[in-house]
Amino acid sequence: MNAAPIFRSNTEKESALTSAPRKASQHNLSEQAYERLEELLICCELKPGRFLAMHELQGMLGFGRTPVHQAVSRLATDTLLIVSPRNGIQIAPIDLSRDRRLLDLRRDMERFVIRLATERSGATHRNQMQHIKRQLIDNGAGMSIDQFNRVDRHIDQLLLSAANEPFVDSTMRPLHTIFRRIGWIYHIKTEEIPDLRATVEGHIAVIDAVASGQVDAAIAASDGLMDFVDVMFDVLEQEISPALLDCNQTAYDIQFS
To answer: Which of 54, 121, 164, 235 would give a disulfide with 125, using CB separation of 3.0 to 4.6 Å?
Structure first.
């Protein structure tokens, strides 16, 4: 049995009792700031290569210094931001070659997560998957990429929750953000803007197989999605201006790079 905590005074006791709610509230604000900043990165509202000061980010996000600082620290660890004492905060430029290499890592990690999610998911997880599947079947064709990305984030969180392996969460989340941004650029900035049909159908196949307990089918569907992302890179490498990947690129740099 654990011993009860010993307090030297009523003030110390009151401080201990109120610190937990404050910490929980602070964590919630930090998570909200992280999610909002992540959204701005995914849709390139914060252009790759751009420099900002901390107070500029605070104004954009609408949070105080501490939650924004914590969100920036996390996204810097995720390699999505670069923090420099001299230059402030830079939105990391997009390196398509690097991101394509990371797709191999994501493919293997998705297989691991999908297998665990299929084997470990309970009735609540499976019911939520089936609900999302019905939403995608009914509404997927008419979704904007921003609407789909919100559903996609929910799917990723649900699969990680069903897998119940916290060790992979911190690795998978930045990978999901990186490739969600790649998908946004592909669906918004390419010459013949594709519809969402292929990616929606791919996600339906994954969650349907996981919810049905079909491990091999779920992994095959996940591999199919990774193959689709790989094809995106072929298009992006041919069509996307380097200035979109790094806003510091000038016309001269682009012409002679």
So the answer is: 121
